Amino acid sequence: AQKITQTQPGMFVQEKEAVTLDCTYDTSDQSYGLFWYKQPSSGEMIFLIYQGSYDEQNATEGRYSLNFQKARKSANLVISASQLGDSAMYFCAMREGTSGTYKYIFGTGTRLKVLA
Amino acid sequence: DADVTQTPRNRITKTGKRIMLECSQTKGHDRMYWYRQDPGLGLRLIYYSFDVKDINKGEISDGYSVSRQAQAKFSLSLESAIPNQTALYFCATELAGGPYNEQFFGPGTRLTVL
């Protein structure tokens, strides 16, 4: 079974609008972390935002926010005021395990295209 | 200068050849990882190392080996390359105990096995 599921292979959004990229996860751990990374066409992986399983507030980093719904096991990324430079591949990832045995699992990604 | 570097950035090799991909970091992180990325499959973990004396297999370690020569260096070897090892390979580092434990990625090595 997939531990990280990103159901949207591709998304379009109009410039200056908000967009939500979906991510659901599966783990039996009580303590885990959820991450979003951006991969532009140049290929590098860029860390965007982190949500810990015990964090009560949704994480925010500038125009990025993470809509964390623990009971539903979802960790959707919201990008507000989209910019052309946001066009990229976006990966959701989960860190599970205990200190010393952490492992990371990545989803298959969502390709976002921002339209002018 | 980049904090995580990978060499080579691109490599074309032939089936059966031995090849080594190198990763160096100046971040002082203790943890290092090797991933491969294939279209439609996201990133998959090959090997990881939490310190110089600690090496662990990831989900797709068959056909690969690694060496942690120093805290700053983590090499990935393909002993006998095969075409389905054609992929984009990423090295990543992580600081244990950091606020997020996020990973910092190198620029990637694009490997083609003919």
Features:
heterodimer; A: 116 residues; mainly beta; 4-stranded antiparallel beta sheet; 0% helix; globular; B: 114 residues
Q: What does this entry look like structurally?
A:
The complex is a heterodimer of chains A (116) and B (114). In chain A, the strands form 3 sheets. In chain A, strands 2, 5, 6, 10, 11 and 12 form a 6-stranded mixed β-sheet that branches. Chain A has a 4-stranded antiparallel β-sheet with strand order 3-9-8-7, with no helix packed on it. A two-stranded antiparallel ribbon of chain A has the order 1-4. The mean pLDDT of chain A is 92. In chain A, 0% of the residues lie in helices and 51% in strands. Chain A has strands at residues 4-5, 10-14, 19-21, 24-25, 33-39, 46-52, 60-61, 64-69, 74-79, 88-96, 103-106, 110-115. Chain A is globular and about 45 Å long. Chain B has no helices and 11 strands. In chain B, strands 2, 4, 5, 6, 9, 10 and 11 form a 7-stranded mixed β-sheet that branches. A 4-stranded antiparallel β-sheet of chain B has the order 1-3-8-7, with no helix packed on it. Chain A binds chain B through residues 4, 33, 35, 37, 43-47, 50, 91, 93, 95, 99-100, 102-109, and chain B through 33, 35, 40-45, 48, 50, 58, 88, 90, 92, 96, 100-105, 107-108, 110.
End-to-end separation of chain A in angstroms reads 38 Å
The Rg value of chain B, from CA coordinates, equals 13 Å
The residue fraction in helices of chain B comes out at: under 10%
Can you give the mean pLDDT of chain B? 92
Largest interface: A-B, 23 and 24 residues
**Total DSSP E strands of chain A:** 12
Supply the helix-strand structural class of chain B: mainly beta
* Low-confidence region ranges of chain B: none
Assign an overall shape of chain B.
Answer: globular
Task: Please state the overall shape of chain A, judged from the principal axes of the Cα atoms.
Answer: globular
Give the amount of beta strand of chain B, in percent. Answer: over 45%
What's the total helix number of chain B?
Answer: 0
* Radius of gyration of chain A, CA atoms, in whole angstroms: 14 Å
Low-confidence region ranges of chain A: none
